[in-house]
């Protein structure tokens, strides 16, 4: 089974993405760190049982010889919600059930965090990135448990895609979360609604 792990906001420059997310949610994000294998860096926000990640290519690190995750090499435009990540206890088993192109497991670490993540060969997840990236954490360390609680909670993630039925079929019986809604749309789009100390907020 899959379970919600985190949301990803992509941006061309990390400072720009952090400012956009903080303005949209009305709370401060926490510094995350660098992912040297992918030459990316991030800031994070506790969402209770999951977390929000603002991620960008890190210009201080050598560019990798392989595509970055979340299709960041081709990212342009303003910051926006681009991806979601689902955790599992058997990454290899979940990949057998997933659409082709979901990725190949890569073992990664940052500090005492240890995880395997499936990364597509071209950086782009199935259904134009609407399919979740898959992750398997090792050990008890998890970002959501380390981050300060700003009182923000995800109440709904709406994913629109022209082939909504195909995406629903790919995930049927694998994840059951009342916050997740997959709907038909003219193009891939994501919208997240949050409960915050200042009332409902939406990021797209």
Q: Please, could you describe this protein's structure?
A:
With 204 residues, this protein is of the alpha+beta class. Helix content is 15%, strand content 40%. The protein contains four helices and twelve strands. The chain has an eight-stranded mixed beta sheet. A four-stranded mixed beta sheet has the order 10-9-11-12. β6 (104-110) and β7 form a beta hairpin. The longest helix is centred in the N-terminal third of the chain and has 12 residues, at 14-25. The model has no long low-confidence stretch (mean pLDDT 97).
Name a few traits of the molecule:
single chain, 204 residues, alpha+beta, 8-stranded mixed beta sheet, 4-stranded mixed beta sheet, 40% strand, globular
Brief digest:
With 204 residues, the protein is an alpha+beta fold. Helix content is 15%, strand content 40%.
- Return the structural class: alpha+beta
How many DSSP E strands? 12
| Percent helix range | 10-25%
Radius of gyration: 16 Å
Distance from N terminus to C terminus (CA atoms, Å) equals 27 Å
Major sheet attributes: 8 strands, mixed
Count of helical segments? 4
As residue ranges, the low-confidence spans are none
Average pLDDT figure: 97
Q: What portion of residues belong to β-strands?
A: 35-45%
- Helix-strand pattern: EHEEEEHEEEHEHEEE
Report the principal-axis shape: globular
Strand order of the largest sheet: 2-3-4-1-5-8-7-6
Task: Describe the protein's topology.
Layout: E1 3-10, H1 14-25, E2 30-35, E3 40-46, E4 51-57, E5 80-87, H2 91-97, E6 104-110, E7 113-119, E8 133-137, H3 143-146, E9 153-161, H4 164-171, E10 180-184, E11 189-196, E12 199-203
Parallel strand pairs: 1-4, 5-8, 9-10
Antiparallel strand pairs: 1-5, 2-3, 3-4, 6-7, 7-8, 9-11, 11-12
